[in-house]
Amino acid sequence: MEIVGIDVGFGFTKAYNGRNSVIFKSLIGDATDIQFRSILGDDASTSNLHITLEDKSYFLGSYAELQSNIREYTLDQEKLLEDFVKILAIAAAGLCTDTSEPINVISGLPVGYLKRDSKKFKEIIQGVHEITFHNKDGKDVTKRININKIHIIPQPIGSIFNLIFDDQGKIKDRGLATQKLGIVDIGFKTTDFSIFDHLQYIERGSCTMDTGISKCFSVIANKLRQESNITIELYRMFNFLESGMIKIRGKEYNISNLKKRVYNHAASAIASDLNRMWENDWDIDSIILSGGGSVELSEYLNPNIDGNVIPIGKNIDARFNNVQGYCKFGRYKWGYSKYISDSIEEPKANEEKSKEAALDKKDEAPNDQDDDAATAEKSSKGLSWLRRQS
Ligand SMILES: Nc1ncnc2c1ncn2[C@@H]1O[C@H](COP(=O)(O)OP(=O)(O)OP(=O)(O)O)[C@@H](O)[C@H]1O
Ligand SMILES: [Mg+2]
């Protein structure tokens, strides 16, 4: 049984199955009839995303941005769930995996929506879906995505699992597993705060704030509108912020200083939320920054945070931290050996298997529970969902 992690974020949709990583903007557009295709340009698997799902065709991600007449993104949790999640999640799964056999999925929700939306999320994507990818060369590929089990966890916990587990879903960092950790996941719309103490999810110190990077983008976009009379959609801002220059109707605007001021302001708002919320959790051992936004804000954030902040690795794309952790946790939960017996990877030697079994025993929790609504309910009572299925 293959295990796929899927993270439908407000900014980017990500998927990971231990071998393939997929990322595209959470942007959906109408599928227009393109009469002339240039053979030049980007050939990455997500740059020409044209799909049909349930008899409707869409362009997704940067292809929608480039070619669609009507492009939609959302910063509303309900709309994301109702209108976006199925299309984005099934497309991501279809790009990530080649199997038409049943797969198990781990996904996440912002901590503030976990209780409310887990059941609905699960109903939306569970089951069998047929998705057609219309490739650039004119060939259509129809895939069957059969989602067997889906398990939903608080989004930022994915980043912790990514550090604690190895690729096979075994605990690799026992140091972190025995610490009290604070995690700050800065995404496009949300900033999620979470505390994880000796592998227990602590509801009290966990919450979702609307202080993602899109707040910064809208301040910058508003300033640019005042100067140029052009309204820039927020999802187009990524492209300009890195260089700090934007050209509007031939005129160049230097936004580096504005960006610094806005990022600095956003970082101090996030840091003061954190310092206030975790005021009584002064015994946190380490604070982990995660999510794409943390890369951009880290230089402004670190000086403002009271605590031991683990620096973000230079060579990693922090947007993938949650989804990689989801996949690793899935392998922990449902068993990596079960997964490899069905896949192309070689089974392990017996000696290693018995070592694993010993570890498993140690990590195993007393009961089992696979219902996500109950999961959400129980999350405050500890890590009842961090357990393997036999
Ligand atoms: N290479 C990159 N390209 C685009 N954005 C990047 C890149 N690296 C970091 N970022 C930042 O990553 C942010 C998106 O991060 P992430 O994918 O974690 O958000 P999300 O999960 O989609 O949003 P949310 O958690 O609010 O639902 C962008 O706002 C951008 O500032
Ligand atoms: Mg996110």
Would you give an account of this structure?
The chain has 390 residues and is of the alpha+beta class. It has a domain of 143 residues: ATPase, nucleotide binding domain (Nucleotidyltransferase, domain 5). Helices cover 37% and strands 26% of the residues. The chain has 13 helices and 17 strands. The strands form three sheets. The protein has a ten-stranded mixed β-sheet with strand order 3-2-1-8-10-9-5-6-4-7, with helices on both faces. A five-stranded mixed β-sheet has the order 13-12-11-16-17, with helices on both faces. It has a two-stranded antiparallel sheet with strand order 14-15. The structure holds adenosine-5'-triphosphate (ATP) and magnesium ion. Adenosine-5'-triphosphate (ATP) binds next to helix 9. The site of magnesium ion (MG) has 6 residues, from loops.
> What is the average per-residue confidence, as pLDDT, rounded to a whole number?
86
Given the helix and strand composition, which structural class is it? Answer: alpha+beta
Distance between the termini: 14 Å
- Kindly identify the CATH topology of the domain at 174-316: Nucleotidyltransferase, domain 5
Largest pleated sheet? 10 strands, mixed
Find the count of extended strands (DSSP E, 2+ residues): 17
Bound molecules: adenosine-5'-triphosphate, magnesium ion
Largest sheet, spatial ordering of strands: 3-2-1-8-10-9-5-6-4-7
